[in-house]
Amino acid sequence: MIKKRNYILILIVVAGLLYMMKDSFFQPGVEDLKGSFKELGFTRNENNTGPVLRLYSVSLTDTLWKEMETYGNYMPHTKYGVTKVFFFLEGSPSPASISLDTQKPADEYQKNCVAMYEKDANSQVKLVRYPFR
Predict the structure, then answer these.
(1) Quick one: three-class SS letters along 1-37?
(2) Does residue 89 form part of some domain?
(3) Is residue 20 part of a domain?
(4) Number of structural domains the chain divides into
(5) Across 43-50, average pLDDT
(6) Is 12 within the bounds of a domain?
(7) Which domain, by its residues, includes 81?
(8) Per-residue pLDDT tens over the stretch 18-34
């Protein structure tokens, strides 16, 4: 009787572990989003003790606003840091990097920017459509 109970208990524990492993290995990610997102450039300040600033430039095939916000949410963010993602349509001139000084794309690329995602130091998220128009 005790042996049977141990087998059942072991079976339940193993089934639970398998479920947790499956759940952790099959998390949704950037590849699952519509829009064929492609990271063009990434810039990060070297401040490891204070606010970390991350700037991304990304190309995509269509203006899927909800997908852009989801993409931004997938990007790393540090407590009290700032993460900005600038979105450009595929095929339009896009920057390979973004200056830490201005925290925005160079002037010649700004007209091609279709959206800007920002998560600020308080983890407040905003997605601005056509931020430079």
Answers:
(1) CHHHHHHHHHHHHHHHHHHHHHHHHCCCCHHHCCCCC
(2) yes
(3) no
(4) 1
(5) 79
(6) no
(7) 30-129
(8) 888 887 777 766 666 77
